[in-house]
Amino acid sequence: LTTVVGRIDKVMLDEVAKSLIVIDYKTGDFKFNKKKTQFGVEMQLPIYAYLLKQKYPEYSNIGMYIQNVCLDNNELLSNDKYSLDGITVNNLNRIITIDPTLGTLYDDNDELINKSIYIKHIKLKKDKTLSSSKNYLVDENTFDNLIATAKEQILNTVENIREGKFNISPIHFKNEQTSVCSYCSFSDICNRTNNDVRHIDLAESEDEDEI
């Protein structure tokens, strides 16, 4: 038996519609890249979504997001800085249970506001269908696959720990300035060699670009 324990920054639930979204606070300019999850990287949001699915199996998870905090004085004036940035399931009926402002508010000129105030990159077209890049608006299968990937990564990690497998195999993504080793305080005593580093080009993977 393995118990995974953690603390989620924010979960918003609609108890009537049985919908929820998960939010993680970040102090920097962080972007969630769902392509990296297949390599076991940037798993925080998918793991949260997986754990919530176990705790609230009757709820539909319709989004996983990053919210910027610790803004400077100039950024405090921009409402957009507080908006949720991430992926949303392409289902208008579910989205409005969490964000009822979508397509219901009017500006000072009495014009309908067609974009979400709280979720970045989500808006309505004239025919009242959702409009966004596929990097931000995903189908339910894509969303569920991220949750399934989180479960797979958890099980693989648990198995490796039990078998004493702690292979040195850091990842460096092409065109990125830093790698995971840049944040390690034990680099001076690490046995890592250049041959241990896995060099990955995300452009060659089948998924979409960074969201």
Please characterize this protein's 3D structure.
The chain has 211 residues and is of the alpha/beta class. The chain has 3 helices and 9 strands; from the N terminus they run E-E-H-E-E-H-E-E-E-H-E-E. It is globular. A hairpin with a 5-residue loop joins strand 5 (123-124) and strand 6. The protein has helices at residues 44-55, 92-98, 140-162; strands spanning 10-14, 19-26, 60-68, 85-89, 123-124, 130-131, 137-138, 171-173, 198-200. The strands form 3 sheets. The chain has a 5-stranded mixed β-sheet with strand order 1-2-3-4-7, with helices on both faces. A two-stranded antiparallel sheet has the order 5-6. It has a two-stranded parallel sheet with strand order 8-9. Helices cover 20% and strands 18% of the residues. The longest helix has 23 residues, at 140-162.
